[in-house]
Amino acid sequence: MNTCDRVDSIHAAHIQDIHDVPFDVLIRPFPPELDEEKVKSLMETLQNPSTKDNVPPIDVLWITGREGGNYFYSFGGCHRYEAHKRLALPHIRCKLVKSTIQDLRSYLGGSTPDLK
Questions:
Q1: In angstroms, rounded to a whole number, what is the distance separating the alpha carbons of residues 107 and 63?
Q2: Residue 116 and residue 109: Cα distance in Å, rounded?
Q3: How many whole angstroms separate alpha carbon 60 and alpha carbon 26?
Q4: What Pfam families does the record point to (predicted)?
């Protein structure tokens, strides 16, 4: 299994709340490696009203910048993200993992932006 599609992450296993996050606020700093058949299957599942809720939420790091801005970074769930994107869905189901800039730095290293 591709690491960007782990469904049960150690970050969000304890989080029960699922949020519909506007798709356009998500920041995805890394390009995905995709299995086209998996994306197509997820798109079919999402288009069916009776099965769309079977698609697990993605984990999103929620970081508050130094001036109070909210930033939503997504590193996993590549196939789920891509299926939503191709369907031009306005929201994606997410588990928000309250995080810090130091947490983000563990993913981005010296490329970590100055979040305001």
A1: 13
A2: 18
A3: 8
A4: ParB_N
* pTM (predicted TM-score): 0.85
Please report the beta strands in 1-116, taking only residues with DSSP state E, as ranges in sequence order: 19-22, 26-27, 58-64, 70-73, 91-99
Q: With H, G, I as helix, E, B as strand and everything else as coil, classify residue 115.
A: coil
Distance between CA atoms of residues 73 and 25, nearest Å: 9
Please, are residues 72 and 21 in contact by the beta-carbon 8 Å criterion? yes
pLDDT in tens, 8-63: 565 677 888 999 999 999 999 999 999 999 999 999 999 999 999 999 999 999 99
Residues belonging to the binding site for ATP are: 77-80
The binding site comprises 77-80
d(CA 27, CA 46) in angstroms, rounded, equals 21
What distance in Å separates the CA atoms of residue 51 and residue 24, rounded to the nearest whole number? 24
